[in-house]
Amino acid sequence: MKESKTEILEIIEWHSLARDVIRNFWAVILAGIIAFLGIYIAERSIYTPEYKSEATLVVRAKAASSLAYNNLSASSEMASIYTKVFTQSSMKKLAAENAGYEGFDGEISASVYNSTNLLNIKVVSSDPERSYKLLKSVLEVYPQVSDAVFSNSVIDIIVQPEMATNPSNSISSIKRIEISLLVAGAMFVLILVLSFLRGTVKNVRLFEKKVDSNLLGTISHERRPLTLWQKLRGKKKGLLIDTAFASLKFNEDYNHLATKLEYMRRNTDSKVFAVTSVAENEGKSTVSANVALSLMNHGYKVALLDLDLHKPALYKIFKYRKPLKVDFSQILKGEVSPKEYEFLRYKKTQLYLALSKRACSDASEWIGSKTVNECIKSIREKVDFVIIDTPPTSVSADAMSLIKMVDKAILVVRTDVVDAADVNDTVLTIKNVGGSFAGCLLNDVYKPFTFFGNMGSDDRGYSIYKRSSYKLYKTYSKENVSNKILDSDLSERN
Questions:
Q1: CATH number of 204-480
Q2: Under 8 Å CB-to-CB from 368, ≥6 apart: which residues?
Q3: Alpha-carbon distance 283 to 418, whole Å?
Q4: Distance (Å, rounded) from C-alpha 118 to C-alpha 158?
């Protein structure tokens, strides 16, 4: 049992549960409001008020008439018998006739208090006056029935009936709130259950259980330096490993991936890598940019090509705001001679960028052409690595056309975004079209949740600690970075 509990705890992704609750908390609030309004509407439409009148009697034997609780055992037994007398049909008929009603329009009940000779009589009907009159009539006519049966008993009324002022079955405001909170709580639990059962890949353990593919590595979750207004607008921002905002863990994840690509190059002569994903917003463009930077930091000459021509994004990640003299898509389409194209050199390093700013709606018609293939082969001969940012496979078929031209394909899988079944289908499709599949990269992985802070280490021994606030990094960038290293000015040319 301990092993099964441990496995369940490893499968649960607490950050995913928290995100789903926060994103769908409006449903929790709405469920509570609907329940509260539903109760109100039901009270006004289908609710029938009931008014209750009651009286308390004491039953005692005649031999012990001087003391109410003498011979308690016999009196209690007689009180129990009287409960049947008061509720029989003949009693109802006599009481209705005595009160001047055609029938006993209500319900009568009788009960004995535990281990006593005290008898409680209740009459419930839809009218408070009727309930009161019927009960008074019952107390007036009961001797006509009981005296003929129990001649050795005496019944005294110790609590007189009163006319009810409020319905006995009404729901109080506190009860409404309790029911509303209960419904809201049920919705909260439902969100947690649906989040847990969703078939997405949420962590490494679930990847190993659900995805039939090797895992190249993981990229830890990294908080972007966004303002509150940018967060409220849902703005996304790519983060490069050479900025002061990137943590050591974030850098080392990409170094670990770059090392694996070096190994593939040495063993299989794989130099051209296509980076793709199943869906949009899985971070493939950020991964492409950072793995190229990491390879460049290892001393290699790297070309980074933006071939996601339906929605180019690398120029945004590198903050290139100047207009391009020649868009890389023009070279691929054959509109401009390759000799006229100059790669953008990133900060006087060995990273060369081929950027596109214009979306090409007709890219699917020519992306698999001989011109594109020859262009990739030509670039391959001049650098140590070629990293290609391709479109998501679910958005366009261009990715599969490009995958057939490269040495290896890398599939970026962002946690809790795409179903594991879709990931498996994409891996199978890559292999079926003749592509060489390198493996999956699990992106945006949260560190395990603990109740005792964030101390610990990952699978490669790197310390995990709680990072300082954004202001610390802002101060660091102002004081220690004075040579415009954060400026992504890519105007340097070859």
A1: 3.40.50.300
A2: 398, 401, 402, 404
A3: 13
A4: 9
Burial of 358 (0-12, 13-18, 19+ CB in 10 A): exposed
Read off the tokens for 223: 């908080």
* Domain-wise residue ranges, the chain: 2-47+171-197, 51-159, 204-480
d(CA 414, CA 391): 15
Interatomic CA distance for residues 229 and 109, integer angstroms: 66
pLDDT tens column, 298-326: 999 999 999 998 889 999 999 888 888 88
Angle at 266 between CA 264 and CA 269, to 5 degrees: 75
Indicate the length of the chain as a whole number: 494
- This prediction has a pTM of 0.71
Long-range CB pairs of 375-380, under 8 A, 24+ apart, other chains included: 375/331, 375/332, 375/338, 376/272, 376/305, 376/405, 376/406, 378/338, 379/303, 379/305, 379/354, 380/271, 380/272
How do strand 272-277 and strand 153-159 relate by DSSP bridges?
unpaired
Cβ-proximal residues to 45 (8 Å cutoff; 6+ apart), any chain? none
User: In what order do the strands lie in the sheet containing 385-389?
Assistant: 215-220, 437-445, 408-414, 272-277, 385-389, 302-306, 351-354, 344-345
Q: How sure is the predictor about 5, in pLDDT bands with cuts at 50, 70 and 90? A: low
Q: What is the CATH number of domain 51-159?
A: 3.30.70.1130
Q: How far is CA 356 from the centre of its chain?
A: 36
Q: Which two tokens stand for residue 17?
A: 């549960």
pLDDT level of residue 277 (50, 70, 90 thresholds): very high
Report yes or no: 55 and 142 within 8 Å, Cβ to Cβ: no
